[in-house]
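Task: sequence design from structure.
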């Protein structure tokens, strides 16, 4: 605490009248969730992907607090294997969605999690369409 503030509070206490409350001048650091760069948000709707064959699907994200990112790809049949690449502050995650007519109309979710103590996350969803 700065000496001037310490004297102020000590003077208020000694005089017995008390002092007006003053809010602390510091603020606690707030850890922010990851920012999705690609695909761009479309009114919180799932992003359509059209499968004619096996298709690599990409999610690009960055963390405003420079925390490492983890990507969890989840399809109707469970976890989908992905590969991540980091270039500076940007992390790219790629997963290959295998062609399967049963996937038509199904959702694939990607949970992007920062590895800070807060474990903030952002969800990206894809809607599979098979012509």
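Answer:
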């Amino acid at each position: 605490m700065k000496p001037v503030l310490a004297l102020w509070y000590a003077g208020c206490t000694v005089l017995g009248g008390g002092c007006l409350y003053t809010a602390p001048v510091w603020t606690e650091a707030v850890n922010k969730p990851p920012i999705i760069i690609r695909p761009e948000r479309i009114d919180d709707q799932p992003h359509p992907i059209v499968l004619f064959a096996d298709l690599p699907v990409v999610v690009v994200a960055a963390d405003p607090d420079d925390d490492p990112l983890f990507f969890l790809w989840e399809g109707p049949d469970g976890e989908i294997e992905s590969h991540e690449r980091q270039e500076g502050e940007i992390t790219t995650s790629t997963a290959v969605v295998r062609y399967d007519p049963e996937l038509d109309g199904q959702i694939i979710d990607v949970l992007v999690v920062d590895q800070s103590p807060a474990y903030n996350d952002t969800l990206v969803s894809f809607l599979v369409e098979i012509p």
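DSSP finds one helix and nine strands in the chain.
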